[in-house]
Amino acid sequence: MSLHMVWARTALARRQLTTTTVLRRSNIRWIASAPPNSPSLLQRTKTAAKYTGLFCLSSVVGLALVGAGILVHDVFTYNEQHLDGVPVNPLALDPERGGPKNLPIASVLVDDEEDERSKEISKKPRLVVVGGGWGAMGVLEKLSPGDYHVTVVATDTFNTFTPLLPSAAVGTVSIRSLIEPIRKILARLHGHFVQGKAVDIVMSERLLEVETITATGAKANLYIPYDKIVIAVGSSSATHGVPGLENCFQLKTIGDAQSIRHRILHNFERASLPTTTPEERKRLLSFVICGGGPTGVETAAEIYDFCQEDIVNYYPKICRKEVSIHLIQSREHILNTYSEDISKFAEAKFKRDQVNIITSSRVAGVTPTHVLYTKKNEKGETEQHSIPTNFVLWSTGIAMNPFTRRVTDLLPNQVHKKAIEVDAHLRVNGAPAGEVYAIGDCATIETSLLRHFLELVEEADQDRNGKIEFAEWEVMVKKIKQRIPMAEDHLAEVKQLFELYDSNADNALQLNELLQLLVDVGNRITSLPATAQVASQQGKYLGKKLRAIARTDREQSGGEADDDSHTKFRSLADEKIAQPFKYFHLGSLAYIGNAAVFDFGKYSFMGGLAAMYAWRSIYWNEQVSARTRALLMIDWIIRGIWGRDLSIV
């Protein structure tokens, strides 16, 4: 072998060794640079399976614990308790008769002596609350247990959350989610409930006449005695003399909402039949709402939502196509008590939704198949129009119910045509002082200053010269604000008012000048609206005041209670216990179909889904119990996932 070949082989071997060394070093560097604990696919799969198993196991354990908790609850709440020898006063089973009509007087109730606590409360002053609405619940909420022997008289055994009745009318929420039994609300006060209708009152003997239904179904009247009585019976719908209102629905009670829901669903079922003519289908699917206030607007919005979200999915498409919703309003705008911006926003929303808004129109009559209304044309001439329909909702104003009218007929100075007139302390004008109160839709706070004219002059005219100087006028203004707090805003410019009506510029108001001033100020004062917010605030105010009167009475009597405690109780003047009622407007709101509007006086808020959820949150918070809050939340979830219930029961 030559020397040249040996050198060639040696060079080749060196190159191979160098390549091998470089590869080994590269592998070492790659291994060194890799993450020390980089998981493999198998390891990641094991970790995911581990946490999935833990989640499933914890869910099973959680459900098991919930089930065990329910079982334990049932074990401890279910018992076979037998009640033997329950004490009942003989007078509760066979009441004495008396009063102008010689009726049974329920001076002792069946459960007045069933335990020691009941016996103790039966000696307390008797407080009777007539009605089960917002005002009545406000009173009960603020009373303390043991202050009174409380009795609630109402036709329904439950309280209804009325603002959501339009939602219940189309099945957005369940009827059960809007009602709370009055007996459960009364349990905290150890109170009593009598299902019946108040028909008369004997103020001289402090007796309330109640019409009840006996075990045989017959009507029977009885008297319920009281020391103090709160009238909170609400109102009925105003007819405005329109004929044919028996063909309309109203929306004030649970029964009204159920009837409306049945009619709407029946209309769609009949419209789906192949034998229904096109003209009849259009009439069946025409919905007319008379009244552009919150109730009418929200009902129209709920019907529209129902058609968009449920009818279009489960009924023939032609049913949704033929639906027409008409809203008739006598004023120029709907929601006319709200700000102008809100009215325009709601009208624009309804226009996009093809809801027919008919403003500046008056309903002339309602037949079983048509709604007649009048409207002035461009020439100022009144024209009559007709809408074929099989559904009409009447929601236009309020009127007295029969018991409210009976109370006003008994008192000569009750001149208001729609409600019982009360003073600033919510006492019924003309009734025995401190015994009869009225709140809510059935009452209106007096706004006339004229009836206090002589008293105001007597208190302010200190020099008895028959004229009111400016210093005396300032004293009079303070007295007016005490009597009628709603006049405060109209008496802000004290000096300017004085100078305006001092026509002869003698720095004094003659009696005729003062009289005209008081008349004009009284005419500018507006009555409080008939809303749930007003009724609730009045009820809470009155409940606090009655609680304060009870506390003051106990302090004056040294904490001792006897059978005559209510006599001293009535002698306590309301003015010495509490300030006059003053309403604080917290804002108005309305639902307009996947959107809502809020009117806070100087500020307004309008929007879509965000506003709608704010609207829901406010009403959810206003529920009277945790039970109804839970049910309401469940209803909204069910509606969002599975839609509304379309069954007719």
UniProtKB/TrEMBL annotation:
InterPro entries: EF-hand-dom_pair, EF_Hand_1_Ca_BS, EF_hand_dom, FAD/NAD-bd_sf, FAD/NAD-binding_dom, NDH-2, NDH2-like_C. The lineage of its organism: Eukaryota, Fungi, Dikarya, Basidiomycota, Agaricomycotina. It is a peripheral membrane protein. The keyword Zinc does not apply. This is EF-hand domain-containing protein. One of its GO terms (cellular component) is mitochondrial inner membrane. GO terms for molecular function: calcium ion binding; NADH dehydrogenase activity. It comes from Panaeolus cyanescens. It is found in: Mitochondrion inner membrane. Belongs to the NADH dehydrogenase family. Coiled coil: none annotated.
